[in-house]
Amino acid sequence: MPHIGQVPDPSQGIETLAATILLIEDEPVTRTSMAARLTRLGYRVLEAENGRVGLEVARRERPDLLIVDWMMPEMDGLTFCDAIRGDPQLKSSQILLMTAHDAPAQIAEGLVRGADDFLSKSSSKQEIIARVLAGLRTSRLVRKLETTGEELKLSMLLLEKKQAETEADLQTAAAFVQSLLPSPGSPVHGITLAWEYQPSLTLGGDLFDVMTIDADHLGLYILDASGHGVAAALRSASLMTFLRAENMLQLLGSYDPANVLFEANRRFPLSADGDYFTLWVGQLHLPTGSLSYASAGHPGALLSSAEDPSRWLTTASFPLGFDPSARFTCDRVSLKPADRLFLLSDGIYEVPSPSGELWGRDRFQEAIDAGKQTSLSATIASCFAAARGWQQAQHFPDDAAVVGIELTDCREDTSNG
Amino acid sequence: MDKTAVLDLSEALNRADGDQDFFVTLATLFLQESPKDAAAARAALERQDRAGLAAAAHKLKGSVMEMCAPRLFECTKRLEELGQQGKFAEASPVCADVETRLAEVHVALRDVIAGGFPS
Of the candidates A29, A73, A122, which has its C-beta nearest B29's C-beta? Predict the structure, then answer.
């Protein structure tokens, strides 16, 4: 930065050679004198003989600093200030009002009308340099702010566009994942199926299926991938593909839950980031209502009997991938007509109240028991409503899924009946 | 600055950053432009045009400041004030003064242009 009285160094940026100054002055001797002085200081100087012409030049050239005489014909300095401040393209321009006036009231009027600083016509060379440098410094900062603001606006637009694209991709992926889930209704004669699923993000890591294995068997499972979002959803979709009935029959010859878990455990080890699955698998023998089931670290399923107290169907074991040689035990239970089996992810009951208390498995079980007299879908809906009521929020912090099947008929009963 | 001096050449040269050739350019421009402003002031006075008188005197004052002609500057300043106040009777002798002083300044400038700056 040059000292006052020193000619600025052209290498110092906008304050010297790069800076353009528009000088608006009607009196030719004063204009020529000032223009020559500014030119000698290294600035590019544009000249105009009144405010109207000055405004045209300012719009065309966007100068870094405007030095404007107060009294001029056609358009005086104050009217020029008004015009500049009212022009969206020029309103942030720096204006140095040149005047012979030095009365405070007149200075105040100049400031109100939009002048940034004043320059007396009798100013010394040193004062002119100081005020011009100050004006150009401010101009540079304002321009930088404007440029940064514009860049920020552009970045935001790009970001919003990218976000919209990503969101559209996620919606497409979510629609695909939804299409993999079983249709509610009656997958086979004698069985009613209903479910509700609310991923915590657009894409969830909880998936489930209820499928016909063969004429006598219904396969069912629910899996829960650790983590949320796209990565968890992709891993879940991969495991879901593996768990398809035809794949299991080809690999294992049956849908025996313990064998399914053994094979899944072998093929889905812990990821490099330590992600894993929990999985509950069941196979229902339709003629007898006999359900065999096994679990890999999954909180289990809830059997809600029309006559007996409801009970959890779970087996203690590690999640998939923790021990490649792990064996899984299979338990059995007999389902009777009107019994309901609920597969669920822990996201439905691990919801905190505003004070931090979890809703919990017991309250979930109570909600299921309270719904025995209502339809299967209404019971599931009431569970979600109760969980939402507990947390006093619509969206769950984790993926939440409840899948229910109800034995509406049994072939043995039918054949016996 | 001596307010009675016709020209303060030292200060005038200082305002031209010590550039004698440039001062001569400015002086030539002054010789060309200032009679128009003085004539405009006289015409405004004759038609009793306050704004016109003040504007013409103001414009002349600005260029006189660049020439560093103190006596003429004081006259033009006074003429501008009287124009703003609409005091035409008082302005009439001041306008004559301006014309006289302007002629003096012209002579002095012509001397400088013809003979160069006193060493």
Answer: A29
Contact A32 B62 (CB under 8 A): no
Please state, in angstroms and rounded to a whole number, the distance separating the CA atoms of residues A277 and A297. Answer: 8
Q: Tell me the torsion sign for CA atoms A376, A377, A378, A379.
A: positive
- Kindly determine whether residue B22 and residue A36, on different chains, have CB atoms separated by under 8 Å: yes
Binned at pLDDT 50, 70 and 90, residue B2 comes out as: low
Gap between the Cα atoms of A212 and A187, Å rounded: 8
Spatial separation of the C-alpha atoms in residues A110 and A128, rounded to whole Å: 18
Cβ within 8 Å, pair B33-A122 = no
Residue in the structure block whose two tokens are 């929020």: A393
Task: Please give the Cα distance from A360 to A349 (Å, whole number).
Answer: 5
B63–A40 C-beta distance less than 8 A: no
> Strands, E, within A202-355: which ranges?
206-214, 217-225, 277-285, 290-296, 301-304, 311-313, 331-334, 340-344
Q: Is residue A1 part of a domain?
A: no
Q: Into how many domains does chain A fold?
A: 2
Task: Say whether both A137 and A231 belong to one domain.
Answer: no
The pair of three-digit structure tokens given for residue A344, joined into one six-digit string: 């669920």
Please determine, for residue A221, whether its predicted confidence score (pLDDT) is greater than 80. Answer: yes
Q: Which residue has the tokens 């200030």?
A: A81
Domain shared by A146 and A202, yes or no: no
* Shared domain check, A226 and A130: no
What sign does the dihedral A304-A310-A313-A314 (CA atoms) show? positive
Residues A145 and A268 in one domain: no
Residues A297 and A401 in one domain: yes
A-B contacts at Cβ under 8 angstroms: 48
A145 and A187, same structural domain? no
**Smallest Cα distance from B118 to chain A, Å:** 22
Beta carbons of B62 and A27 less than 8 Å apart: yes
pLDDT for res A6:
44
Tell me if A155 is assigned to some domain.
Answer: no
Interface test with A, best of B3, B11, B30, B63 (most A CBs within 10 A): B63
The enclosing domain of A114 has a CATH number of 3.40.50.2300
- In this prediction the pTM is 0.57
Strands of A400-407's sheet, edge to edge? A191-198, A400-407, A340-344, A301-304, A311-313
pLDDT score, position A13: 46
Q: Are residues A216 and A77 in the same domain?
A: no
Candidates A29, A30, A40; nearest CB to B17: A40
Q: What is the ipTM of this complex?
A: 0.90
Q: Which domain holds residue A47?
A: 10-150
In chain B, domain spans: 35-114
The answer to whether A48 and A24 have CB atoms below 8 angstroms apart is: yes
Tell me the backbone φ, ψ of residue A157, rounded to 5 degrees: -65, -45
